[in-house]
Amino acid sequence: MQIIQRSNNRHKLIQFCPLFLYLFLGIMNLPAQTLIISDDFESGQTSLWSDFASVRISDELPKGGVYSARFRFNGVPEGEDSWAEARFDLGGYYEELSIKFDLYIPENYVHRANNAGQGWANNKFFRLWTDTYSDLEKVGATMYNQFDNGNSTTGNNTYASSIGNDYRTQASNGMSSSVTTAANFITLEGDRGKWMSVVIYIKASTDSSPAEFSLYKNGQLFLATTFNNNWVPGTQGYRKGYLLGWANSGFTEETILYIDNVEFYDGFIIGAIFSNGFE
Length: 279
Ligand SMILES: [Ca+2]
Prior knowledge:
By secondary structure, the chain is mainly beta.
């Protein structure tokens, strides 16, 4: 990027930037990512998906083709929860995984608070585990409603969603939720009524290196963190997981999100980001 800033011929260099990046990555000899499996939902519920809860294939709002996955969060009174979740099984174990998909945020999306407007309400974004949901090195991310006074658990709810990564901070603990957080993942002004491009990258911890997590929103790095959760000796890859999931906030109105063009890669997807671009 410094090269671009110094240049008088800015546009040409920007044009060639992806090429430079590709060459740079080539020189660095980074391992290439490999597509494990993809699903554009044009073939119904494929064998990738082990379970749909309040999810179905729908032709109401595809990002591409005719169909997408429709996640229906039931409208419920305040204090009650909603739930829509798609579970997958990759059929193999991956120590380094990139998950790319398109997510539609509806116009009526609002992230309620708990307890009559006071208190955080966490809604699942994704989970990944090895074999069973109780796996010690399970990871994920959770969205919280944002208050207008920052990190306090009380205040005026903005109804926007922050997001952060989840893992066990001790083997004896349950999942800690949204440990490292980034605000404005879903904003009322900027994200409703639109498709968002999401990339999740996770690298499992080893006996000598921490786990890595990063999240890209619409082609921009949104959150990146490393953490220690090597509670089982050696490295166990990820095989199973889910997208979206339990919403402790509940939704006052029926709230329908859509997902399309799900891609799972073995490895770090950044090369694919710059070669295919974000739509
Ligand atoms: Ca589709």
